[in-house]
Amino acid sequence: MKTRFEGELAGLPPEVAAELEDHLLSRLEGHLAAGCDEAEARRRTLEDFGDLRDVAGQMTVMTLDPVWGRRRVPRTVRWLVGVWAGFGLACLGRLCTHVEPTYVTISSCLVVGLTSCAMALGLLRLREMGRRWMVGYLAGVAVVMGLSAFAAGQGGVVLPFAVGWFPVLFLGAAVSVWVLNLRSVRESFL
Amino acid sequence: MKISKDLVAASATPIILGLLRGGESYGYAIIQKVRELSNDEVVWTDGMLYPILHRLEEQGLIVARWGESETGRKRKYYQLSPSADVALREERRQWETIQFLMARIFEPLPSNA
């Protein structure tokens, strides 16, 4: 019985999956007790529940509450989003202060910065889409960042930005986390 | 009898808070209780309950703990938080006001004698 809804719950955050699994199994037991066979009971259970992915998404992603309330996003995700957004802002900010930036510097800053910001926003959306999408997206961003660093010709162009702009990075991260806690990023950007 | 979505949405919070006055409960049991108390007139989609529970938890009106079901599954139990009393009284006051207003509006119209 434990694996009956594994497919439907795959990729969901563990706590959400556990809570919903308990509900689904309780409902399934009810249908079985009422005389349904396994397949029919399963079908009715999922029909009774509604859009499971949508429900799980509402439980994990911040959405706009009519009175500016916030839904809980796990602290780890919030900080990860904040750090990536801050890092992206730091890279973009570097453009403003670089003396006579070369074409390569400009392009790598833009690519890395915009990709980081997009990744920060994407994390929120991907979280409700499941772990496989998150891993794939992170891998893609890592490839883009690696290529941009390589294109700059020095391989370590990304790291000096992060180290040299530490205060900006954390300030950007703090602002991002604060902003994300107050606004519906999902409705605005995704 | 089908209840409109707006009315279901509006009444969900006071219903959940009111049911939890009776003690700790969990998602499936709450849905079953709603159905039972309404004589099957109010039937919630199973999934609609959980985002509401999580919102109420975020607002601090209910608290949750993980426990085990009778069969050993992980189960999340909810109960009213100590600070929920005020919110519950306010919800009750609002619904009693609406109920009073509706009763007066739907009083039989005077017949023209």
Write a structural description.
- Chain A is an all-alpha fold and 190 residues long.
- Chain A has two domains: 6-60; 75-189, no CATH class.
- Chain A contains ten helices and no strands.
- In chain A, helix 2 (14-33) packs across helix 3, helix 5 runs antiparallel to helix 6 and helix 6 packs antiparallel against helix 7 (131-151).
- Chain A is rod-shaped.
- Residues 62-72, 162-170 and 181-190 of chain A have low confidence and may be disordered.
- Chain B has a three-stranded antiparallel beta sheet.
- Chain B contains four helices and three strands; from the N terminus they run αβααββα.
- The chains are: A mainly alpha (190), B alpha+beta (113).
Q: List the domain count of chain B as a whole number.
A: 1
With strands numbered from the N-terminus, the spatial order across the biggest sheet of chain B is: 1-3-2
SSE topology string of chain B: HEHHEEH
Oligomer: heterodimer
Briefly say what this structure is:
The complex is a heterodimer of chains A (190) and B (113). Chain A has helices spanning 6-9, 14-33, 38-49, 52-60, 75-97, 103-129, 131-151, 158-164, 166-182, 185-189. With 190 residues, chain A is mostly helical.
Key traits:
heterodimer; A: 190 residues; mainly alpha; 2 domains; 10 helices; disordered C terminus; B: 113 residues; alpha+beta; Arc Repressor Mutant, subunit A; 3-stranded antiparallel sheet; 4 helices; 3 strands; elongated
List strands and helices in order, with pairings.
The complex is a heterodimer of chains A (190) and B (113).
Chain A: H1 6-9, H2 14-33, H3 38-49, H4 52-60, H5 75-97, H6 103-129, H7 131-151, H8 158-164, H9 166-182, H10 185-189
Helix pairs in contact in A: 2-3, 5-6, 5-9, 6-7
Chain B: H1 5-20, E1 25-26, H2 27-37, H3 49-58, E2 62-68, E3 74-80, H4 84-105
Helix pairs in contact in B: 1-4
